[in-house]
């Protein structure tokens, strides 16, 4: 089977985007893994599928698959690239695009210079909905790791996040060692994205994310949202924050519980291609 795709990235978090409206084909997990494979395929952190909506309120359905082939609920950097992709391919001329995802509806607003603003919806703190095996929601939790403990915030942005504040330079964190220990911690039954943030001021953080199903990525949109929400709940941050990630900067705003998290950032098209699956 020949499949047309577009390679894109949002602040270095890279994607293979496939229009399944114009091309009718069924992708199995092994096809997703091949698309994402950086040697035997195209190579990306996530594969994004563009489909016709099931919900009449939505313009499109947006499905997200990690490089390991697993389908996930949300991808913030991918949502921005999704908006650019559907307009570049003339699937819509709208600048405000409503999209159906596995974790609910999100709204994409196309801004200038290929930047896109995403209403990511409200964060969820109930442990059972993250999911995180604790009985009570708390501002922070002590996670037992290798005989020690890590203080984390835990919340869902549609997908699960654990965020730890480091006092030192975030570049000094041994993410290759700590990341998988958090990602696969038994108290996160669907695994978790592990964020490590360094607070520079009440309006700027450095962040690195070891993503569930991928490993460390150059940027994580939902991870940036989760880190800012955690920082605001701990009174370390005010309501609009610049998030410096290894691959670029995102702007994240949140006005408090029950309110949506608004994330704005860049999109880039790298190349278009056809792959034989
Ligand atoms: N690895 C994430 C999905 C992609 C999230 C990230 N790329 C973003 O921009 O939000 C998960 O398993 O929940």
TrEMBL record:
Record's function text: Catalyzes the stereoinversion of LL-2,6-diaminopimelate (L,L-DAP) to meso-diaminopimelate (meso-DAP), a precursor of L-lysine and an essential component of the bacterial peptidoglycan.
Keyword Isomerase in annotation: yes
Species classification: Bacteria, Pseudomonadati, Pseudomonadota, Gammaproteobacteria, Cellvibrionales
Catalyzed reactions per annotation: (2S,6S)-2,6-diaminopimelate = meso-2,6-diaminopimelate
Pathway(s) where this gene product acts: Amino-acid biosynthesis; L-lysine biosynthesis via DAP pathway; DL-2,6-diaminopimelate from LL-2,6-diaminopimelate: step 1/1
Site (Could be important to modulate the pK values of the two catalytic cysteine residues) location in chain: 161, 211
Record note on quaternary structure: Homodimer.
Protein name: Diaminopimelate epimerase
